Amino acid sequence: MNNKLALGIDIGGTNTAFGLVDEKGAVIFHDSIPTRDYNDAALLIDKIYRILHYTEFSQNIIGIGIGAPNGNAFSGSIEFAPNLKWKGIIPIAKMFASKFNILSYLTNDANAAALGEKIYGAAKDLEDFVSITLGTGLGSGVIVNGQLVYGSNGLAGEYGHIRVVHDGRDCGCGRKGCLETYASSTGIVRSIDLLDSPNKSTSILNLIKKPTAIDIFNSAEKGDKFSQEIIDFTAEKLGNALADFACFSNPEAYILFGGIAQSGEGFRTKVQHHMDEGLLPIYKGIEVRLSKLHGDNAAILGASSIVWSKKDKIKIT
């Protein structure tokens, strides 16, 4: 095939998804590997290289886009990501470029999601919005006047580490009360132990050895009152936080992306309700939307979109 492809890589705290994507957003190939199985980032990079080397598409890759927690677009490094096993500063873009001998670009995983929404998804009609990724942690990609906000050193958009509860839950960043300790896949699971409720002792969650966020949503659908309370609590925390964050960039919409968001319209409606109640009147009308990126390939599309946004810097023949 002669079609030029971008390699999109989404490095998450649990899994790393990667795939080859054309400029129209068609995912030609995709796979995933457990991030936590690789104590050294170089080993993960080598694994991805070996998997792609045996595909028929490897010669069509024109660039690599990487989304990662605490990804600094200016330095190309993952910097002190609390939800990864790799500690300190990891020059991940340089490492991928060296291994593949191709231009590589890094950004925060939530920034990648925001670019993906703008190019392929729910934000095609928007110039001012914030993408909220609800995964192992909580990330945010802030778009103002059609451009990503990077800040002075490339690390803007860490809404997950804005403290929403004084002296609240311990966070992997070393502080207490950060939003992601309440509104993320791990945060919602922590609520099983940390929320008090008369319905707790009779919850069907007690029958599950290691319940996940998906288990909580599934149990809520089955009528489990404690699971429903956890979801309501999570939506309230997130909705109130989004109401306050509106004071910063006055977005047209927030777009929910990631595992919790995939639970569907019911959760979105709850978040919208709590945000609307907490908004200053001058910001009324902000929407909460769900991601329109394609299911399991959403993160890959977001990461690959970095390459297409940089295509003026890549010689395509």
Protein traits:
Nucleotidyltransferase, domain 5, 33% helix, 5-stranded mixed β-sheet, 317 residues
Quick synopsis:
This protein is α/β, with parallel strands linked by helices. The protein is built from eight helices and 13 strands. It has a five-stranded mixed β-sheet.
Provide a descriptive summary of the structure in words.
- The protein is of the alpha/beta class and 317 residues long.
- It folds into two domains: 5-114 and 296-313, ATPase, nucleotide binding domain (Nucleotidyltransferase, domain 5, 2-Layer Sandwich); 125-292, ATPase, nucleotide binding domain (Nucleotidyltransferase, domain 5).
- The protein contains eight helices and 13 strands.
- Helix 6 crosses helix 7 (265-278).
- The longest helix is centred in the C-terminal third of the chain and has 25 residues, at 225-249.
- It is globular, with a radius of gyration of 19 Å.
